[in-house]
Amino acid sequence: MKKNKLIAGILISLAGIASLIAALVFDTKLDSMLFTAAGFGLTYGFLTLREYRREYSYWSLPENRERYQEMLEAEKDERKLRLKEKTGRYVYNLGLLILCGSIIVFIALDRLEIMDAKPLNIYLCAFLIVQIIAEEVIFRYLSKK
Q: Residue 128: what pLDDT?
């Protein structure tokens, strides 16, 4: 029942609503991107809120409160928490670097009218795979130290 799930769900839903309003109100060349952002924001935001609600409902039941306290105690393993934090930080920084580079490349290709949708999809899939592999490799590397 982490509150950050609730906050993330609300913020992402609001971003989706804002993107939808912007797409409907303004007529720009970015309409498809705004509708995509709206669809993602609304879908992911509402799914996150639903997950939080289910989790809250489950752990709030009197018969589950003791198990919830046991689960919280088990999560206090200091070494695993540090490894998770370091892994998350490294993957996040790697993701930011790749994202910044891709933004520059995609803007340049768009301005030059060189790019169509297929290379973008291939790149985004490769990015997802790199993120997943990097997380596992970094976690294993940190575990050996």
A: 75
Determine the Cα–Cα distance for residues 46 and 20; give it in Å rounded to an integer: 15
> Does one domain contain both 29 and 88?
no
What percentage of residues in the chain have a pLDDT greater than 90?
13
pTM: 0.50
Buried b (16+ CB within 10 A) or exposed e, 7-41: ebbeebbebbeebbebbeeeeeeeeeebeebbeeb
Signed CA dihedral, 7, 12, 16, 19: sign only: positive
Helix (H) or strand (E) holding 15: helix 3-25
Q: Say yes or no: 14 and 58 in one domain.
A: yes
- Domain span including residue 20: 1-76
pLDDT per residue as tens digits for the range 49-79: 888 887 777 767 777 777 777 777 776 676 7
Sign, CA torsion 83/89/92/97 = negative
